[in-house]
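Technical note accompanying the year-one report. For the benefit of new consortium partners, we illustrate the data format agreed upon in the data management plan: each record pairs a sequence with a C-alpha cell string. No post-processing was applied to the example shown here.
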Amino acid sequence: MLSSPLVVQIPPSMQMTDEQFFDFCQVNRDLRIERNQFGEISIMSPTGSETGNRNFNLAGQLYVWTEKDGTGICFDSSTGFKLSTGADRSPDACWIKLERWNALSPEQQQRFAPICPDFVVELRSPSDNLKPLKEKMEEYMREPGVQLGLLIDRKHRRVYIYRRGVLEECLENPATVSGESVLSGFVLNLNKVW
C-alpha cells in the first residue's frame, strides 16, 4: 500500500476532460483517485481494514440519521464530486440537502455531480499527513453550498470542525460531535470511530 498519495502531474496538452477523468476512475475502481484544480491526479491505495471499519461506522451513523430525518441524501467515500474550482474530490462521508440534489439533472447525478455537499467528513488514516487533509477541508469550505465539515484525527483523538466563514475549531478527545443546525439532531458517536 502507498503510505501517502501518489501525485501524477499531467501536461496541459494532455489534460483529461471531465468525461475522460470519470472513465479513467471507472476503469481503475480499486484505487481512490482525486484530481485537484490544477489537473494533478492523486492516487491513493484502499484504506486499511481498521480505518475502513471506522469509516463504515461513521457513514452508518450518518445514514441512520439521514433516513430518519428525510431532508437530504448521504454518500460514502467512493463518491466523487466536481467542485467549482474544477477539482474532483471524494469525502469519506457527506450529506446534501434534497432540494440541492434534486436541482441536478439525472445525467449530472450519475457522474461526479457538480456540487459540493452541505456536510463533509474526512477521517485521517494512520498513514495520512494532517496538512493535506486540512488543506482539503479548507478547499471544501470555500465551495458554494458547504456549511459544515469535520476532520477526524484518530491518531491524536481530535476533531477539527470547519464552518463557513469561521476559523477551524479543534476538540480534544470528544465523545460525540453535533451536526449543529446543518444536520439538526445528528450526533456522531466518536467512541465507535476512535
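Partners are asked to follow this layout when depositing records. The chain has a mean pLDDT of 93.
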